[in-house]
Specification:
The chain is mainly alpha-helical and 508 residues long. The protein has a five-stranded parallel beta sheet with strand order 3-2-1-4-5, with helices on both faces. A two-stranded antiparallel ribbon has the order 6-7. Helix 9 crosses helix 12, helix 11 packs antiparallel against helix 12 and helix 12 packs across helix 16. Bound molecules: flavin-adenine dinucleotide and iron/sulfur cluster.
Length: 508
């Protein structure tokens, strides 16, 4: 009896659990480009194009390996509107009575598959280094789920950057060496760009025709779309940028969107690269003396630590996580996130780069767009929808904990011990944005006062009951309380006026 083997657009791994369970002679692999997946949020056109192009290439790879693949293209009138509809159609065509699927990384899709009038057997997604059940065991009984403790456990378990049971270099974490600003450098290596082949060009035309109103520029498109390209991108990053990764990890430059970042998240999230192979390759660069330990540790921590940790949080927390709103924020996402011009140079640069490249690095996402949304009291569900839409690497399991937990502190402190909020001083220290801004980062009040300065104190003041006893925030409240009363009143009044204009949709 034929069974249907479902392969989703982010499950493009040769050793996927559903494919391992398949009998190539009897079973039928189902892959489908459906409108629902392209529109449940308005995904960036480059993200849709990447997933469709990578799916088409992976389907061919499966056929070459001897699998029978039923592939439905978006422009085929027979193609149904959703994954569920496509599974039912294939079941009817073949008489299949069971679907085998690797568990999706999206609660919406899990619910849709569970609701089908066709049994779906989920297999664990074992492409992660920490299985969801192990994460749940680690989390059990802990008051706080701190990434740092999880990360150390993962280092011990995998042996990555370990020497005789101790962390390499005598320290678990070299972050103190990794918080430097960066200067423009014409010789800084650029990420590898892949020119679209005929197959990718056909997908670009399709996306252009079908999703004309989605925010974001489709071209130029340079992302790796198959494993061979992803491996080239990895080689290039390890050789050219990894040595500087640590030093430049937190820096931001108006004219350099990539600095020394890897641009590997989309390849890893779609399954073209495995997290362990990426970590091992980076470790080898250090062991063979080609990259310093602070860079390699910083890079491995992002994958072995953060990536695995947020996946564990997502799996543990269930679908309600996406509705968390621990600070009770309710404002609408300001139109500047969708491209309304703003005089704030940092936000303008981060949003323009997001529109053009479907990419911003971690500190831009956390300390510019995320920080501003949090300070402005935006509903975390709207912030979540934005991040899920606009980035090339955005999938619910990784995006939601980063946005709702880390960036918006909406999960009641499950993921972070304090909110990531800052005044303009942090952005000024870590970037060159403020030099080209209409606002003055040193002004605390007045017509040119940097909005981050106003909103930072407004945030602390309005959430005093929640945070004033947080040991990591006591100092901030002391500083605020030491300011003269007339100054504090003026800050709050100007912040209110700014928020009034922002939330009325006026340009700021
Ligand atoms: C609000 C917000 C939303 C985010 N949404 C996503 C998302 O949808 N998808 C996504 O993959 N990452 C997300 N991140 C994490 C991070 O910003 C991206 O992984 C990173 O910018 C990808 O670019 P890169 O490959 O050049 O990463 P690099 O800076 O070069 O880091 C190397 C790798 O580490 C991993 N990594 C780094 N930080 C994180 C993190 N916090 N969580 C998980 N993995 C991490 C990624 O796989 C990345 O490729 C988000 C962060 C924030 C603050
Ligand atoms: S002055 Fe303020 S708004 Fe302008 S770039 Fe600096 S931090 Fe951003």
């Amino acid at each position: 009896m034929t069974r249907l083997i479902l392969v989703l657009g982010d499950q493009l791994s040769d050793d996927l659990s559903a494919l391992r369970a398949a009998d190539p002679a009897a079973d039928l692999v189902v892959m489908a480009e459906v409108m629902e997946e392209g529109t449940y949020v308005p995904h960036h056109p480059q993200k849709i194009a990447l997933i469709l192009a990578a799916m088409r290439k992976f389907a061919r790879r499966l056929q070459e390996r001897g699998f029978r693949v039923a592939y439905s293209q978006l422009d085929d009138p027979e193609t149904g509107p959703s994954i569920g509809a496509e599974l039912l159609r294939r079941a009817e065509e073949t008489g299949a009575r069971e679907v085998i699927a690797t568990r999706p990384g999206d609660w919406r899709l899990i619910a849709a598959l569970e609701a089908l009038p066709l049994p779906v057997r989920f297999l664990p997604d074992d492409r992660f280094l920490c299985p969801a059940e192990e994460f749940a065991r680690w989390a059990e009984g802990r008051k706080q789920l701190r990434m740092e403790w999880f990360y150390r456990e993962m280092r011990r378990r995998t042996g990555l950057l370990m020497e005789g049971g101790e962390p390499a270099g005598g320290k678990w974490n070299f972050d103190a060496e990794n918080r430097k600003p960066a200067a423009p450098d014409l010789l800084r290596p650029r990420p590898l760009r892949f020119e679209p082949d005929a197959e990718v060009r056909a997908v670009l035309d399709l996306v252009e025709a079908r999703f004309p109103r989605h925010f974001g520029r489709l071209r130029p498109f340079h992302w790796p779309t198959d494993r061979a390209e992803a491996l080239l991108a990895l080689d290039h990053f390890l050789r050219e940028s990894l040595p500087r990764f640590g030093d430049e990890q937190d820096a931001m430059l108006a004219d350099d969107p990539f600095l020394s970042h890897a641009l590997l998240s989309s390849s890893m999230n779609l399954g073209l690269l495995g997290p362990m192979e990426v970590c091992r390759r980076a470790e080898t660069e250090w062991r063979e003396g080609r990259a310093p330990l602070n860079a390699v540790e910083g890079f491995i921590r992002q994958i072995l630590g953060w990536r695995e940790y947020v996946r564990g949080i997502w799996a543990l927390s269930g679908p309600d996580y996406m509705r968390s709103n621990g600070l009770g924020h309710s404002a609408a996402l300001p139109p500047l996130y969708w491209g309304q011009p703003t005089q704030m140079a940092c936000l303008s640069a981060a949003v323009a780069q997001t529109r053009d490249l479907a990419y911003a690095h971690h500190i831009q996402r956390l300390m510019v767009t995320g920080n501003f949304a949090l300070l402005a009291g935006v509903d975390p569900a709207e912030v979540h929808e934005w991040y899920l839409s606009v980035y090339i690497d955005a999938l619910e399991w990784v995006e939601a904990p980063n946005t709702i937990g880390m960036s918006q502190f909406a999960d009641h402190g499950l993921l972070g011990s304090k909110p990531y909020v800052s005044s303009g001083a942090y952005i000024d220290r870590m970037s060159d944005y403020c030099r080209g801004c209409a606002y003055a980062v040193k002004d605390r009040t007045g017509p040119r006062a940097c909005p981050f300065n106003l909103l930072y104190w407004h945030f602390l003041d309005r959430h005093r009951a929640r945070f004033e006893r947080n040991p990591r925030m006591v100092q901030m409240y002391r500083t605020w309380d030491r300011m003269e009363e007339p100054h504090r009143t003026r800050v709050l009044t100007e912040a209110e006026a700014f928020l009034g204009r922002l939330h009325a949709g006026e340009p700021v």
